[in-house]
Amino acid sequence: MVKELTELQLLTELEPSVADNLNRHLSLAKPWNPHDYVPWAEGRNYAALGGVDWDPEQSELSEVARVAMITNLLTEDNLPSYHRYISENLSTDGAWGTWVGTWTAEENRHGIAMRDYLVVTRGVDPVELEKTRTIVLTRGIIAPEDFEGVLIQSAYVTFQEVATRVSHRQTGRVCNDPVADTMLKRIAQDENLHAVFYRNITGAAFDLAPDQTMDAVTRVVKDFDMPGRGMPNWRRNGVLMVKHGIYDLRQHLEEVLVPTLRKWKVFDRTDFGPLGEQRRNELGEFLEKLQRDVVRFEERRAHLLERQAAKAAART
Asked: How far apart are CA 235 and CA 269, in angstroms?
């Protein structure tokens, strides 16, 4: 019978991999400054300083782009909650602590750049944005009660970082503004490097404790939700983003789950015990169901878009 490792044992045994991947990350990550991605010349004072306050007519973003930008920004804004949650489940000592601090500092740039861009270009209502930011940060992260421990956190953040990368890239494409597209591409590069770090740590965990890691990965995949869950208008905004391909079920399956699981060689491993085999089988069944769900979803979406196009044509 395979002995289950404690959290302390997992953290201790994985730390050399954390140190190696931290050094790898630092050798690849290129410093950048948020202010370099903001069109400051487009800015002007708001009413408090003798200017004009925001009006919807000032925004050049489409509804989809505006919703996606706000959702992505508010997700990034919740960084203090993520930092606390990750620190509690990983460690603030040694290589773990250095990584958590590095990750937090790099992630913080994302919210700075996006907010400055939106406020300067008057892409969104800054007053409503601030009200919603306050609500989101007051609530903090909303996670399943049993999503605790280094394996759960490493697996979840791997998938989440890849998903966020996809969302930022797709948002940049619908903004119809090369400045926003360039900024979001740069943010997505950070997310990709962060995903690789966590993916490599989870890969090391598979070699260290295959059954425990397989259990964690299966639980994360089956219960996965984006970190913005629970923010105001989350359901409505999420539906709009799914409808227009900012982040939908096929992207989640084919661009997030499948490539990551393939990197871990989940369905090729031969070192699982009974628990690992059971959880891998569950994961396989879940992915098969998800593939069927993708097809049904896309059929419904195509039908909905056809109906909306027909209604629009009838009005003209």
From this structure: 38
Query: Please, which residues have CB within 8 angstroms of residue 278's CB and are 6 or more apart in sequence?
Result: none
- Residues 249 and 294 sit within 8 Å (Cβ to Cβ): yes
Residues 169-189 pLDDT 10s: 999 999 999 999 999 999 999
Query: Which residue pairs, CB below 8 angstroms and at least 24 apart, start in 197-201?
Result: 197/21, 197/22, 197/24, 197/25, 197/99, 197/103, 198/154, 198/155, 198/157, 198/158, 198/161, 199/158, 199/260, 199/263, 199/264, 200/17, 200/21, 200/24, 201/14, 201/17, 201/18, 201/21, 201/154
Contact, 114 vs 129, CB < 8 A? no
pTM: 0.92
- For 20, 90, 101, the CA distances from 95, given in Å and listed in that order, are 9, 11, 10
**How far apart, in whole angstroms, are the C-alpha atoms of residue 308 and residue 168?**
26
pLDDT digits (tens, 9 = 90+) for 32-83: 999 999 999 999 999 999 999 999 999 999 999 999 999 999 999 999 999 9
Tokens of 284: 């396989």
